């Protein structure tokens, strides 16, 4: 199938990044959210990121306005219906994603491929509640989307080959690389990355190091581009906790238990960069460790 029009549901950091790269690669995009503010912020962020790419000579100036012109926004799920490919990128909570699919299904064309950018939730289970499990799969981008090369493609138990090949072709058109992962909790990247981040929070919780020493150690000692706590703030602590809970429940192994300190930060509403406070406080000029 030839994908031309893409629907993106959820205009947070991932949704705006996905809309950005899709529009830049020539796809028409309908970006949906329940909040007009989120849609406005997403458009402003996309414009800013495209302008930065142009100022660094990565893309032509004309590509900025051309990409922006390909993106429309809507708070009505019905407007997402007339697309060839839908990528759901709303909050990492299964009930939210299920409700979105329930509301969206009556508006979809028969040929539309439905995908989720979920970091961890079972693709097979999400698919089973839709009318098209064979045309459903995981389409998992990495953050920040315009920069990261990888997209994990996850087949549910019923996903057909045509759906997989169509998504693989879209990834190639984006100039990115697809990795195929089986449908088990958190797939490949987060199965490995998130326990490392959780262990960093345990290291903080047990007083082995403080925020700065833990991050410096992993940056200078293991050549990670960001320390694990800085990365957790970047991803969103609510998303990190949700992924740990999926690993813990789905694999029924105590080695995946979320650190109580991670839970406490989320309960405080300290979700990282998106709320201006997490393991660092971002309200001043430079980030200040909170521990
Ligand atoms: C949770 C999940 O489900 C899965 C996940 O996504 S896990 C998270 C995966 N992501 C990571 O691990 C990211 C780790 N961090 C990094 O790779 C780097 O710190 C980084 C790429 C984010 C920033 O790199 P840096 O060298 O410190 O900063 P900087 O020089 O400012 O940026 C490098 C490039 O990225 C671009 N960039 C940085 N942040 C960006 C953003 N949010 N959006 C768009 N572009 C961005 C910059 O413009 C710059 O572009 P050029 O090379 O064209 O000049
Ligand atoms: N953060 C990351 O590094 C990565 C995240 N992901 C996955 O991508 C998805 C989105 O994550 P991320 O962008 O970080 O999260 P954000 O919190 O930044 O954005 C989520 C957006 O979805 C919106 N939303 C919530 N409910 C609905 C709904 N019913 N309909 C439409 N929009 C809705 C939220 O609105 P409001 O704010 O009003 O609630 C918010 O704007 C998650 O599944 C996550 O696991 C995947 C790869 C990396």
From TrEMBL:
It comes from the Bacteria. The keyword Oxidoreductase applies. Residues 5-183 form the 3-hydroxyacyl-CoA dehydrogenase NAD binding domain. Keywords: NAD, Oxidoreductase. One of its GO terms (biological process) is fatty acid metabolic process. It is an enzyme of class 1 (oxidoreductase). The keyword Cell inner membrane does not apply. GO terms for molecular function: 3-hydroxybutyryl-CoA dehydrogenase activity; NAD+ binding. Its EC number is 1.1.1.157. The record marks 140 as: Important for catalytic activity. Residues 187-282 form the 3-hydroxyacyl-CoA dehydrogenase C-terminal domain. InterPro entries: 3-OHacyl-CoA_DH, 3-OHacyl-CoA_DH_CS, 3-OHacyl-CoA_DH_NAD-bd, 3HC_DH_C, 6-PGluconate_DH-like_C_sf, 6PGD_dom2, NAD(P)-bd_dom_sf. Signal peptide: none annotated. Belongs to the 3-hydroxyacyl-CoA dehydrogenase family. This is Putative 3-hydroxybutyryl-CoA dehydrogenase.
